From TrEMBL:
This is Putative Kinase, PfkB family. One of its GO terms (molecular function) is pseudouridylate synthase activity. The keyword DNA damage does not apply. Coiled coil: none annotated. Residues 11-291 form the Carbohydrate kinase PfkB domain.
Length: 367
């Protein structure tokens, strides 16, 4: 499974949030303005952190650039995050920042009722923090940008690593002179409608982006009730379409927009899906799968001088949806059983037409 040449050592960098999740699960249908029976659990969370853990579980070394504190709560959060295999050594520590917390209420089927996110810590990130990490960022296989970080930082990353930029200006380490000189894949996850505004000026500079339709509308500068076709049209007029755009549509699956085409990838039949428990974190798992399969595609294309199977954005979307469904089958924000084998197995069960690509992935490292 994805046995990558160890001399290459691809790694990802996630620039984004880390927090404690407090999730309240209702035993029955949620009743507004009333006390609802249920249970509450705490776990590690944060969109960036969740994406990072999913990537680690899929076999990719992953570093995070975030903002850390030093209270007892912070020390516990940092310890548990590093125990999950996520590197935090490149993240600055600011002693006075509060512990980030995400509080949400979930229906009994795992659907989100509402949430409040206290992400004041990550708002303290500055361009200077990123400037100091240029050697790490420059050599990454992918840089994933979480919309929790300040707009100035998003725009700095988009400008430096934009899809149309010239890597020749980078200080590439001579130890990597035999490595493909392509830039890191630049990936956007807007996080929420309120945070999506931060991508409006630079969305088209990303290689890959995974908003939902409400976030896409905000980025396009149109009404949230507008059709996806109008949203995409507005992005095109503003030359603000990323290289590959994957729009999450909930039960309607995912829309794939590339160049002049727009294709809907529907969810598999219910009998083919894993049983859903908790939708929180499903979008993060989808984003991680898009990164994972895109890195795989680049490596195979470079090493074997060919494209694996018939891999295209529509197939990547199916892998992303399979990853989201597998994540939703766990009570945790990141499914602790996830690995590359189980992702491929779930994708093959959900979308049997991917069998050739799955076989290629399973044997892709035998070069």
């Amino acid at each position: 499974m994805l046995q990558i040449d160890k001399r290459i050592k691809p790694y990802c960098v996630v620039v984004g949030g880390i927090n404690i999740d407090i999730q309240a699960f209702c035993h029955s249908e949620y009743i507004e303005r009333d006390s609802n029976p249920g249970y509450i659990k705490r776990s590690l969370g944060g969109v960036g952190r969740n994406i990072a853990e999913n990537l680690v579980r899929l076999g990719l070394q992953t570093e995070m650039i975030t903002i850390l504190g030093d209270s007892p709560g912070w020390k516990k959060l940092i310890s548990h995050t590093e125990h999950a295999g996520i590197g935090l050594g490149h993240s600055p520590c600011l002693p006075t920042v509060p512990l980030p917390t995400y509080l949400c209420i979930l229906e009994r089927d795992g659907g989100l009722v509402g949430a409040v996110a206290d992400m004041r810590a990550i708002e303290q990130m500055q361009i200077d923090h990123l400037e100091k990490q240029k050697p790490l960022l420059d050599e990454a296989a992918a840089i994933i940008v979480d919309g929790n970080i300040p707009q100035t930082c998003i725009e700095w990353l988009a400008e430096r690593y934009n899809a149309n930029g010239d890597r020749a200006s980078f200080n590439v380490n001579t130890a990597h002179k035999n490595r493909d000189a392509t830039k890191p894949l630049l990936v956007a996850d807007p996080v929420s409608s309120s945070k999506a505004e931060r991508f409006k000026s630079c969305f088209g500079k990303f290689d890959i982006a995974k908003p939902n339709i409400a976030e896409a509308a905000v980025i396009a500068g149109v009404e949230t009730k507008d059709s996806l076709q109008n949203i995409i049209s507005a992005m095109r007029k503003a030359s603000n379409l990323p290289g590959e755009l994957y729009v999450s549509m909930g039960e309607k699956g995912m829309e794939v927009i590339e160049h002049n085409s727009m294709t809907n990838i529907s969810l598999p039949f219910p009998k083919l899906r894993p049983h859903s428990i908790n939708h929180s974190g499903a979008g993060d798992a989808a984003c991680a799968a898009l990164v994972w399969i895109s890195i795989y595609e680049r490596i195979i294309a470079r090493e074997l001088k060919r494209k694996p199977g018939n891999l295209c954005p529509q197939d990547k979307a199916k892998m992303a949806l399979a990853s989201a469904l597998y994540a939703a089958s766990s009570k945790y924000s990141v499914n602790p059983k996830l690995n590359d084998y189980r992702l491929c197995e779930t994708a093959a069960n959900c979308y049997p037409e991917l069998s050739e690509i799955i076989d290629d992935i399973r044997h892709g490292g035998e070069m």
